[in-house]
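Have a close read of this protein, sequence plus structure tokens, and explain what the tokens say about the fold. Thanks in advance:
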Amino acid sequence: MKRLHETLSQTWWNIQSSLFPWLSEELGPLTEKQQELITTLELVRIEEFVFTPCGFPGRPAQDRAAIARAFVAKMIYNLPTTRALLDRLATDKALRRLCGWECNNRVPDEWTFSRAFAEFADSRLAERVHEALIRKNYNGVLVGHISRDSTAIEAREKPIKETVIEAAPGKRGRPKKGEVRVRQQTRIEKQAEGIALADMIADLPTTCNVGTKKNSKGYKESWIGYKLHLDVADGGIPVSGLLTSASTHDSQVAIPLMHMSDERIVSLYDLMDAAYDAPQIRKVSLQLGHVPLIDVNPRWNSALKAEIAAENKRCRLVGHKPAEVIRYHERSTVERVNARLKDEFGGRMVRVRGHAKVMCHLMFGILALTANQLMTLVT
């Protein structure tokens, strides 16, 4: 992590020694949130990824770069709606100028923000900026652990009932001599065969539906919406993420996430809970040069369950903690990131509909969270 720290230290020194004093003279004393927004905007440089139609015929569009910066500010200030963002821009002169508008009458209306957000969702703006941020800061950096998990995302949508396709009735009993019965491959088996990453992602379900899981106390709880799957590096830095239907099992997204993270960073260990206990996931992790540390899921194997309990008891009696167990404790990093995304960066306040827009909203929050965590490594 030395090189990452050196790169971020230089960035932070430039912001603190040059940018903050200059802006303080222009805007007056900066609050803590304003300093966080300035640091985030300077680190992500989102305006470099926004298409500006200057010189084209027709009426010029509103400044999309300023609107993109405003959506980043919305996540940092944890504002629930675009209307609340516009009200804040109307009363906060410093925030308005940081986003790129000198006068209040230059700020677009709410429907212009809505159209711009739809464009950002179609072009995957926040995802592209986040990927570039990770590639830039983790170039040549070795990451120890990647923690993988998912979290429920509640949405204000009507769940879509999945159409159940009834399989053709097969012949019962043992096949005849010379008869070959082809078994249909599962999604994980197709992914393990080495299909393209784009095909893996396209095969994942993305409609809004009902998800159910057990909470930490063992009780079942359900929600309507989606499920966000994240890969988080040491230090609480989100590396890659995918959004699927709420009913999608975690194990079906593990292999695409592995390939996405492997294209962006170099890591050593993959940390996953018992939901990812599948031989195909372990195999792909080893093929990528990683060490999979996955909690064993005994399922209905009572003998294996008793053996695991006995082994844990023996380790407690002698006070022995295997190295794998100590490393596995780092997996709580992804749970803390999920909690911060929901509590501080708009993860609980999804007011848009559709997979693309929900993903765009969450990625703006993940982008702000990533920049915040990167600067935390320095300060």
